[in-house]
């Protein structure tokens, strides 16, 4: 009869799912979708196989960033409730393994994107990985309450990379798609921080709620949301936008600004009484916000291809 204790003492052998989780698949979904839309709305058509390769290697690069981030942040991830079960802090994947996988996938994705599309897109992907792993994870995240503001650029590059993969250059449309994600990131994460502040306190991460308090965070959420709405609607008047996007952007941003205003008007006593229901609702909607905007861009691109709109 096998000794149960000896089985428990054996070293855990990582499974495929553990390594896949290392790549932050939920984040990768947004990376893939926004990069795909950025490539599709570009005025240059790619061969379907080339387009598939571009999206694949952008996704791999996004996964590489996630692995490097998990390697570096293992210590604080272990302290925070929402990240403690990640592969590295939970011990399912070793830190050295995460680093090796991240570096290998980084090099592979950049080289293959350059070979399959162009080196401008590859260089932008390389910079994105570097920005997320080094500038954000290693520097900004633990040193300044502007970590999310500046660090948000890392998640904003995919649609620009998709556009550059198709066209070989940056344009106003790609910059506005970048701005859409860049300006969305702070209110999205600050809303989360309002009702998850203890996590950041425990981990010593200088989130705005920790360094400046919740009232200041509420003001910042409103300010960024208003600016975000302006840029989101501006995108609708470019060649990348169209009637579907413009209508969607006006409606979505009206709701988003309304939610930010409600958050701004609340005090901590009220928020604690209803368990931060307004903040949680705003955060949940923010998860859909980008998908709906880029989905509307995709719809307009399909309608243009079909000749329904000009």
Automatic annotation (TrEMBL):
Q: Which UniProt keywords apply?
A: Cell membrane, Heme biosynthesis, Membrane, Transferase, Transmembrane, Transmembrane helix
Its UniProt entry gives the catalysed reaction(s) as: heme b + (2E,6E)-farnesyl diphosphate + H2O = Fe(II)-heme o + diphosphate
**Recorded GO MF terms:** protoheme IX farnesyltransferase activity
EC numbers on record: 2.5.1.141
This protein's membrane topology, according to the annotation, is: Multi-pass membrane protein
What functional role does this protein have?
Answer: Converts heme B (protoheme IX) to heme O by substitution of the vinyl group on carbon 2 of heme B porphyrin ring with a hydroxyethyl farnesyl side group.
The protein's name is Protoheme IX farnesyltransferase
Q: Which organism is it from?
A: Palleronia abyssalis
Organism placement in taxonomy? Bacteria, Pseudomonadati, Pseudomonadota, Alphaproteobacteria, Rhodobacterales
């Amino acid at each position: 009869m096998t000794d149960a204790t000896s089985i428990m003492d054996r070293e855990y052998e990582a499974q495929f799912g553990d390594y896949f989780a290392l790549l932050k698949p939920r984040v990768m979904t947004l990376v893939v979708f926004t990069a795909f839309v950025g490539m599709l709305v570009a005025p240059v058509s790619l061969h379907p196989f080339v387009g598939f390769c571009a999206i694949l290697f952008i996704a791999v690069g996004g996964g590489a960033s996630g692995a490097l981030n998990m390697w570096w942040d293992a210590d604080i991830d272990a302290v925070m409730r929402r990240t403690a079960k990640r592969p590295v802090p939970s011990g399912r994947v070793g830190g050295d393994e995460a680093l090796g996988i991240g570096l290998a996938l980084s090099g592979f994705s950049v080289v293959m994107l350059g070979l399959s599309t162009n080196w401008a897109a590859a260089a932008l992907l390389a910079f994105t990985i570097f920005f997320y792993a080094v500038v954000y994870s290693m520097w900004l995240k633990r040193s300044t309450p502007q970590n999310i503001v500046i660090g948000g650029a890392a998640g904003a590059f995919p649609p620009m990379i998709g556009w550059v993969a198709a066209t070989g250059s940056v344009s106003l449309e790609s910059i506005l798609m970048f701005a859409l994600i860049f300006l969305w990131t702070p209110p999205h994460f600050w809303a989360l921080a309002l009702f998850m502040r203890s996590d950041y306190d425990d981990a010593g991460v200088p989130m705005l709620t920790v360094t400046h308090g919740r009232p200041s965070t509420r003001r910042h959420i409103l300010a960024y949301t208003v600016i975000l709405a302006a840029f989101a609607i501006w995108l609708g008047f470019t060649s990348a936008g169209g009637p579907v996007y413009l209508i969607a952007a006006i409606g979505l941003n009206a709701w988003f600004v309304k939610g930010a205003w409600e958050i701004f008007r609340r005090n901590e006593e009220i928020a604690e009484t209803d368990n931060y229901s307004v903040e949680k609702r705003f955060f949940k909607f923010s998860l859909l916000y980008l998908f709906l905007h880029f989905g509307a861009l995709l719809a307009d691109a399909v309608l243009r291809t079909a000749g329904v709109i000009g």
